[in-house]
Amino acid sequence: MSETRTVLRRLDLGYFVRPAAEAGGPEPRVEPVFAYLVRHERGLLLFDTGIGEAGPDTEAHYRPRRRPLRAALAAAGVGLDDIALVVNCHLHFDHCGGNPLLPGRPVFVQEAELAAARRGGYTADQLVDFPGVRYHELSGEAEVWPGVWVVPTPGHTEGHQSLVVRGADGVVVLAGQARDQASQFGADQLARRAARDGVAAPLPAYPPWLDRLAAFEPRRVCFAHDASVWEPS
After folding, report:
1. Res 2 pLDDT > 80
2. Contact 165, 38 (CB under 8 A)
3. Which H or E run contains 52?
């Protein structure tokens, strides 16, 4: 395919309020929820699908405000029927909420993630198994379309995965919730750099999957819950 035809667009699908106990500080933190639309020669790929309904306890805990997936796609000039493929970074309710609107579309997910979701007490069950669901289970890395790779990035969940997209102007990594914030990803990058430069211990640890992402030489890394973007210095 011609790399010039691969285009990314970020979709704003609302926000939620992370309680202070989870935010790591004295106050709660309001976090956006982003999905990403990938225009490729093979069709349209959607990375994550927004905030689903997960019951009154979850609603009270996170106080989400949703932007409907249909409206977000319409603003990008496409409809639900135009989506050919779905990749979820993981199956928590704020990442797979729109999946039931896309029956019949292949949903790429790590085997470990789907198994965890189906054990119960993990996410909203109705967002995982619904009429017309069609999972494509992966066990590791896969090139799902030419120049588009799913790469395991465990940590937030055992089966978390990111999407690597190569275009004419370089590689973009859609990191999902591999890290909550770009600054955290940047700190990992510096820890890796220091280790590779031979700086004496002690040094902070960084996730092993960072080496694999670095091999793609990304020019940008985007996140599910942070509007900031990491770029190499």
Report:
1. no
2. yes
3. none
3-state secondary structure of 92: coil
- DSSP per-residue string spanning 121-141: SSS-HHHHS-TT-EEEEESS-
Q: Per-residue pLDDT tens for 8-59?
A: 999 999 999 999 999 999 999 999 999 999 999 999 999 999 999 999 999 9
Answer whether 194's CB lies under 8 Å from 203's CB: yes
Q: Per DSSP, what are the bridge partners of residue 222?
A: 174
Report the alpha-carbon distance of residue 32 to residue 48 in Å, rounded: 13
CB 98 within 8 A of CB 52: yes
What is the pLDDT, as a whole number, of residue 4? 46
| 3: confidence class by pLDDT, cuts 50, 70, 90 | very low
pTM of the model: 0.96
Q: Supply 206's token pair.
A: 């960084």
Q: Check whether 116 has a pLDDT greater than 60.
A: yes
Is residue 72's pLDDT more than 60? yes
Which tokens in the block code for residue 215?
């091999």
Of 168, 170, 181, 161, give the one whose Cα is nearest residue 220. Answer: 170
Phi, psi values for residue 54, rounded to 5°: -130, 20
| Helix (H) or strand (E) segment spanning residue 151 | strand 148-152
The whole-angstrom distance between residue 220's C-alpha and the CA centroid of its chain comes to 14
**For 16, which DSSP code?**
E
- d(CA 174, CA 171) in angstroms, rounded, equals 10
Spatial separation of the C-alpha atoms in residues 30 and 18, rounded to whole Å: 6
